[in-house]
Prior knowledge:
Shape: elongated
Oligomer: single chain
Number of strands: 11
Largest sheet: 11 strands, antiparallel
Order of helices and strands: HEEEEEEEEEEE
CATH topology: Lipocalin
Radius of gyration: 21 Å
Distance between the termini: 30 Å
Strand content: over 45%
Structural class: mainly beta
Amino acid sequence: MKKLILSTLIAICCAFVIMPNRAHALDITVGASTWYAWWDQVDSKKTTNFDPRLFYGPALAVKLNNDFNLTFVYLYGVFEDKESGSSEKRNLKYKRSDADFAINYRLSNYFKVFAGIKYMPYSIKGTIKSSTEEITFDNKHSGLGPGLGLSATIPIIGNMFALATVSGFYLWSEDNSKYVSTNPANNESYKSNYKRYGFNSTLSIAYYIAPASTVVSLGGRYQYFRSDYSNEITSYINNTFYGVTLTATYTFSI
């Protein structure tokens, strides 16, 4: 978290350097974003398919001048794994956050390039029961790193337009895990570092409601990332999230 705060402060300072010295109005956009997403997870030992869940959170943008603007989007969601099989019964809850802070630069009327910081923590809590023991999980993961991407805004007709983004990211990550078993010999606690890397892509149709200075967009988002480990539990985990997005934002000047 300290790294995230420091990185964000550095980005904000850079943004104010970019801003012109003369006084001018700032265009600020605030709103809410949702993502109804499915999650498929594949590691070196098994495949897990989660039922879809809703991510939700705030969205913020600040237009610094005609070429630069800042954006911040935060999403939070909870997945559950309650599968009961012949050999074991799982009751796990996954809490996941996805935060992006970026500086955008306008290449043309239609395209922007952006670079920023991605923060992606998640936790796993719950139990796994088998015929011989019950294990209680308390896993906390964090990831922070750079991202780079391209966005496009294409007019369709009237106040309707298409939005598209594609971006990649690389995260330095940390795993703090604790396993408590009914068989004390299997108790375990460890801390390890690993890397996550992947990409996001979005495509949506947006409509600008002029009297309300509001934009409503509906579309889809696809996210893939790989976690590379170097331990005896697993060597890698591939994660794929995909689903429907709905966002509403309001713009005003100060």
